[in-house]
Amino acid sequence: MWNLQKASKNWTWLVILTLVLLCTGVGSRFLHRMGGEAVWPLENGIRWFVRGVSARIPALIDAQGAVRRMRRLEDEVEQLRLDARILEEVALENRELRQALGLPPGILRKPLRCEVISWGGSLGWWQSIKVSRGSRDGVREGDAVVSAEGLVGRVRTVYSDASDVMLLTDPNSRIACRIDLPEGGQIMRGVLHGAGRRLPAGLPEGAADGDGLPGFLFVAEPMRLEYLDREKLAGAALPARTRVVTSGLSGTIPGGITVGWLVSTSLGADGLYGAGRVLPAADPSEAKALFVLVGREAD
Amino acid sequence: MKLDLPVMAASLVALAAAQESLPALFGASGGMKVQLLPAVAFYYSHARQWQLAIFSAAWAGVLTDALGGLPHGTTSISLTALAIVALVLRDKPAEPGFGAAFLKTLVWMAFLMLVQHAGAAMAGLADFPASRCAMRWLQTAPVAAIASAAFAKFLWRVDLLAGNVRLERGDASQ
């Protein structure tokens, strides 16, 4: 133990200022944002170090395997560049057709490659990831994050060089989706809920996800598609693993992005709406690359 | 004492980055992570002046709320309250022993997790019962307590090196 001198008056004023800010809530959004901005550089440094070490060790152990993998990846990149050029022609044709038909130009989304900096946030309560793109790259709240397999989540908080992404499996996640029915070109729309949410009363137990506890971050659990039109649901002969895609009705997430596969459907006790269980298509823990779809005006 | 603020700021940022970067240790806890930031508040509330204790507790809580997605004030106010209680109960400022630090941190974590769940539930963010907190506490609090006790020892030595605390013959003083 030791004898302590009195702290300077500056410390006392700092404490008073801090307590005033805490109790009044003034500048709470600013404080929260500054907290994220202050921590991100160190977090990024940790990720850079871990990634650098983990990338070099396999190359040291199996150098020939690393060279083979590099050549295979180069071939894939060339193929993808050719595919991208072909798709640019298709996009141009699409824009000309939309103009000819008098349709409004769509909001194009530019995929921006990003890396996962951390998983689960600071507490791990929410199913979220932090990615390495932020407001300086044009990312905005609500932007979709996708992998090659499908939708991963949407941006919840944006910092200058990083963003927090709420995964589809988070209990607070809500995504407007649709199912393209096999017959008659009909579309069935619903709202996709993340796993773990307690369902409203009236829906059968088969539509519930157990005890309503949040699912594990790395385990893909079925999600629920609610508020499906009962008449369409009753009449549709849905094949196994029908694809569920985003409907685009939210205005922030483009339509047509694969969300998952419908595992089962059931009607509620009141018969007004149905619910379905959806297996997520994308697993962010296994995705080699993630992309943020940033918006830009159509040409 | 001139380097108190830089040492405190560096500790807060480093522990926040470590807490974010480390994966959840136990999947059965629902992905809950070990909370390291309360260790800063614990050290200052047991070993240093009251102004540093309250200041560090408040900002450790602000960082926890900001990075954890909790409503503003949830952890900052509760951690500040814990620091004030520790200040009132302490006999004299002293470097906490490892065992005492371990046990006290377990108590701190239990209170913090209950308050965090209540704050999240009031904001409509929590989607699991409070009883689940007990499981999460069992799985994460012991690791947090070990980290807190070890960090208290480490930070005291950093304060010695930085000249924030001076050792004299038979006594340590500033």
Task: Describe the structure concisely for a colleague.
Chain A is of the alpha+beta class. In chain A, 32% of the residues lie in helices and 28% in strands. In chain A, helix 2 packs across helix 3.
Can you put this structure into words, describing what you see?
The complex is a heterodimer of chains A (299) and B (174). Chain A contains 4 helices and 14 strands. Chain A has helices at residues 9-24, 28-61, 63-101, 230-235; strands at residues 2-3, 108-114, 116-119, 128-131, 144-146, 151-158, 163-167, 174-180, 187-193, 223-229, 242-246, 258-267, 273-280, 290-296. Chain A has 299 residues and is an alpha+beta fold. Chain A is globular. Chain A starts with a strand and ends with a strand. With 174 residues, chain B is mainly alpha-helical. A two-stranded antiparallel ribbon of chain B has the order 1-2. In chain B, a hairpin with a 2-residue loop joins strand 1 (166-168) and strand 2 (171-173). In chain B, helix 2 packs antiparallel against helix 3, helix 2 crosses helix 6 and helix 4 runs antiparallel to helix 5 (98-122). Classes of the chains: A alpha+beta (299), B mainly alpha (174). Chains A and B meet through strand 1, helix 1, helix 2 and strand 3 of A and helix 1, helix 3, helix 4 and strand 2 of B.
